[in-house]
Design goal:
single chain; about 450 residues; alpha/beta; Adenylosuccinate Synthetase, Chain A, domain 1; Adenylosuccinate Synthetase, subunit A, domain 2; 2 domains; 9-stranded mixed sheet; 4-stranded mixed sheet; 13 helices; 17 strands; globular; binds guanosine-5'-diphosphate; binds 6-O-phosphoryl inosine monophosphate; binds magnesium ion
């Protein structure tokens, strides 16, 4: 029987989802994106030594680097067609066969030039403490158009007259906001129309009813992997609102963003760094200083190479936050955890784990809802001993130092979810499996 596994970020993104999706793809015949857009940046490192290759993916599912695996972009994804074609081109130049294996939903809302302009102009207009620090890719404004029922979708590209008519109406509205409210330049109608329609022919062969395709794939016995982008604490409903992205990033979205029934999702894997990072604005209770060389935050930033793939900003770093994870575990219905980047903590003498907060004089043991309360949370830490041994590349649980195993067991107990996988390096083999999601 076919099996479907959902891979979700449980923190503020960049947990190492791409590496784990690629690693799990040896058990799957299809990989599916179901939310977000090219704000995501997933780095895959394949092979060792001189033959090692690194792939950076934004929109194309991480399954693409495995030969013969089908990749699907579901209706929940907002699509910048120009970026997709650019990414396909890059992968083809690297020798991968992409177009025959990539399928795109006709229902994806299109990211157009005015979305990008709105995103950037709004960020520029916010006062410094209130900046969200978006990736500037037009994600938020495109999701707004979707729920306002005025988005142009992939499907519209194949009806040029109707596209032109709809574009006229929506652009009139957005140009009014751009020029009169945000004091910036309007987007030229004809240039936008020509640039959008010029991509239709290249996209058309990949456009498929994704819900139907996934149903058929399962019926044929194929295992599918649902690849989350961003992370639970960036979810538009459950995250640290308003410092979030504009999509639902949680496991339930794997169903809504593809047209697969929730009963078809068999296992939810929560990807979690052994510490915490965040890019952009918003509260972060267990945050550490990343600039002073004697701060553990410096080691996380430096050794963990914590620089954003999409915007090249330094990621903020902090201790593992079990109280935030507890919320993520419940929202996603996690079946198991995968703890990544354990190796980055090697040599830190004592590790703090945030187990709860003090909020307005009261102790709470789960991350509150919304940014205002989170910003007032003072972390409460439990301190556990670190380890001096090198864990980089360790691939067996019993080869981990005892203190590293204790640390992982403590996280497991605090989060109330089993640690099924541990990642000790960016490469495929640098992975420890305790329970395999596809063999449960
Ligand atoms: P994603 O957005 O969740 O896919 O994560 P990113 O790719 O943005 O960031 C994770 C980074 O950590 C990438 O550069 C990976 O190559 C790297 N990485 C993943 N797992 C590990 C690990 O266990 N150890 C180390 N040192 N690096 C890792
Ligand atoms: P992956 O898939 C980390 C953050 C941005 C910003 C907020 C809103 O690589 O884990 P947006 O452009 O989405 O409107 O920005 O969300 N953000 C991410 N942070 N990893 C990501 O993706 C992110 N995608 C968006 O930094 O704070
Ligand atoms: Mg990333």
């Amino acid at each position: 029987m076919s099996k479907n596994v959902v891979v979700i970020g449980t923190q503020w993104g960049d947990e190492g989802k791409g590496k784990i999706v690629d690693w799990l793809t040896d058990h799957a015949q299809g990989v599916v994106r179901f939310q977000g857009g090219h704000n995501a940046g997933h780095t895959l490192v394949i092979g060792q030594g001189a033959s090692q290759r690194e792939y950076k993916l934004n929109l194309v599912p991480s399954g693409i680097v495995r030969e013969g695996v089908n990749c699907y972009i579901g209706n929940g994804v907002v699509l910048d067609a120009g970026h997709l074609l650019y990414e396909i081109d890059g992968l083809e130049k690297a020798g991968l066969e992409v177009r025959n294996r990539l399928k795109v939903s006709p229902g994806c809302p299109l990211i157009l030039d005015y979305h990008v302009r709105l995103d950037k102009a709004r960020e520029a207009a916010r006062d410094p403490e209130r900046k969200i620090g978006t990736t500037g890719k037009g994600i938020g404004p495109t999701y707004e158009d979707k729920v306002a029922r005025r988005a142009l979708r992939v499907y519209d590209l194949f009806y040029p007259e109707r596209f032109a008519e709809k574009l006229r109406e929506v652009l009139d509205y957005h140009n009014f906001v751009l020029t009169k409210y945000l004091n910036t330049d309007a987007v030229d109608y004809q240039a936008q129309l020509d640039s959008a329609l010029s991509k239709a022919e290249l996209l058309q062969p990949m456009v498929t009813d994704i819900s139907a395709a996934l149903y058929e794939a399962n019926k044929a016995g194929h295992n599918l992997l649902f690849e989350g982008a961003q992370g639970t604490l960036l979810d538009v409903d459950h995250g640290t609102y308003p410092y979030v992205t504009s999509s639902n990033c949680i496991s339930g979205q794997a169903a809504a963003g593809t047209g697969v029934g929730p009963g078809m999702l068999h296992y939810v894997l929560g990807i979690t760094k052994a510490y915490t990072t965040r890019v952009g604005g918003g509260p972060f209770p267990s945050e550490l200083d990343i600039e002073s060389t004697d701060s553990p935050g410096f080691q996380m930033s430096d050794k963990g190479r914590e620089i954003g793939t999409v915007t090249k900003r330094k990621r903020r770093c902090g201790w593992f936050d079990a109280a935030a994870l507890r919320r993520s575990a419940r929202i996603n219905g996690l079946s198991g955890l995968c703890i990544t980047k354990l190796d980055v903590l090697d040599g830190i003498q004592e590790l703090n784990i945030c187990t709860g907060y003090e909020l307005d004089g009261k102790r709470v043991d789960m991350l509150p809802v919304g940014a205002d309360d989170v910003a007032r949370c003072k972390p409460v830490y439990e301190t556990v001993p670190g380890w001096n041994e090198n864990t980089f590349g360790v691939s067996r649980w019993e080869d981990l130092p005892a203190n590293a195993r204790h640390y992982l067991e403590r996280l497991e107990a605090l989060c109330e979810v089993p640690v099924d996988i541990v990642s000790t390096g960016p490469e495929r083999d640098e992975t420890i499996v305790r329970r395999h999601p596809f063999s449960l």
